[in-house]
Amino acid sequence: MCRNMSFRQFTAFTVVLVMIIAGFFDACGERRKINRSKFDFTYQDIDYQILSKEKKTVAVCQYSDNEFALFSRRTESQPGQKKKSRSKAWYPYHDITPNGHGMDWRNYCGRFLDIPQTVYDDNDTAYTVTDLADGAIDWVGIGILVLPPTLERLNGGITGVDVNEIYLPEGLKEIDGIVYCPTLKSLHIPGKVEVIRSHSLSQCGFESLYLPPSVKILEDFVLAFCENLEVAKLSGVETMGKYCFKKCPSYTWANLPETLRSMGEGCFDECPELDLVSLPWSEIKMDGCFNGCPSISRIEVLATDPYPFPKNSFRDVDRSSCIISVPKGSEEKYRNAVGWKEFQNIVGELPALEKPKGGRLQRK
User: Fold this and answer.
1) pLDDT tens for each residue of the chain, 364 residues long
2) How many Å from the N-terminal Cα to the C-terminal Cα in the chain?
3) Which residues lie across from 175 on neighbouring strands?
């Protein structure tokens, strides 16, 4: 095909192909690398970078973190908000408190920041907020953060924020970049989210979390190092990357859904308070999980026929005291199965289940 093209035709074809590929990745929600230090205008004390003049889209692009703490408040989108001059207090914690002794950003957690969906440049041209720049909101104290319904990508934009609640837009399809928010207690995961990207929701402060059935993929280190997390409902997750839920010292019950097919190395490792693990009817491919969890006292398995014991897993579980709870009538099968037979307390106390073609479990 290319041999029959003129140079001009080939160049035009290449440009169109590049645009199609770029549009494809944009539609798929791939992270954009947006430099937060580059901004085009300021609206209501927040900096914005123009992403597309044709589509009139912008990204939140905050360079001076302390401005979020100073000006965080509910905003209203109205034209005529001209750009303000830059403050000389570029660095957080300096010269922004009434007494002039610098800021302890934890004292600003009562503030409310509502980022508007429509903003205006110096010429009163309206733009729609679709993105956060990488690290746009970090190392600052905000009590409640409300992101606009037009936001399509987080792009690693929320890191190290002392925030109590974050409200995500309902149309968001992936979560990427909520990392190290130790005071974050409340987070509603929208029902259209399909992927939680690497390291997202790690080192956060919630005690429980519900992942809707739309969430299919957890990448590496998702929900790792969460000190207060006790339980998470994984209703539709199909795959987990490496080290998900690693070092969650308060986690007590790992209830794995029937949809889950594979878990990467290190998932649920070093969770010292983990007491109960519930495995589904179907086998989960895992290798090197649930290690460093000496408090596991019961493992529930819904399968009537034992599948292969997970490789290199449950190393620190006491085989003499931990109870393997299986469906009634399946005890002998487990007592003779490789790996499972190492446990001395195999008890048939669960209802027998069968899996029809539709994939949903039913009682026999």
Assistant:
1) 444 545 444 444 333 333 333 343 343 445 568 988 899 999 988 899 999 999 999 999 876 544 454 444 334 444 444 444 333 222 232 223 333 333 343 444 457 889 999 999 999 999 999 999 998 998 888 889 999 999 999 999 999 988 999 999 999 999 998 999 999 998 999 999 999 999 999 999 999 999 999 999 999 999 999 999 999 999 999 999 999 999 999 999 999 999 999 999 999 999 999 999 999 999 999 999 999 999 999 999 999 999 999 999 999 999 999 999 999 999 999 999 999 999 999 999 998 776 645 454 443 4
2) 61
3) 196
**Three-state DSSP class for 23?**
helix
Q: What is the rounded CA–CA span in Å between residue 202 and residue 219?
A: 11
- Helix or strand run (H / E) with residue 170: none
Q: In this structure, what are the phi and psi dihedrals at residue 217, rounded to the nearest 5 degrees?
A: -130, 130
Residue with tokens 């009817």: 281
Q: What is the largest CA-CA distance in the chain?
A: 78
Distance CA 225, CA 223 (A): 7
Q: Which residue has the tokens 């905000």?
A: 142
Sequence-distant (≥ 6) Cβ neighbours of residue 34 within 8 angstroms: 49, 51, 59, 61, 131, 132, 133, 134, 136, 155
Residue 94 token pair: 């300096």
CA 276 from chain centre, in angstroms, equals 24
Residue whose C-alpha is closest to residue 223's, from 282, 263, 261, 281:
263
Nearest to 257 by CA among 227, 232, 294: 232
Q: What is the C-alpha to C-alpha distance for residues 39 and 49, in angstroms, rounded to an integer?
A: 4
**Cα distance between residue 307 and residue 312, in whole Å:** 15
Q: In angstroms, what CA-CA distances link 79 with 67, 76, 343? A: 21, 10, 69
**Cα–Cα–Cα angle for 217, 179, 93, nearest 5°?**
165
pTM: 0.80
Could you identify the residue written with the tokens 């969906």? 117
- 3-class secondary-structure state, position 345: strand
Q: Do residues 227 and 206 make contact, with C-beta atoms less than 8 angstroms apart?
A: no
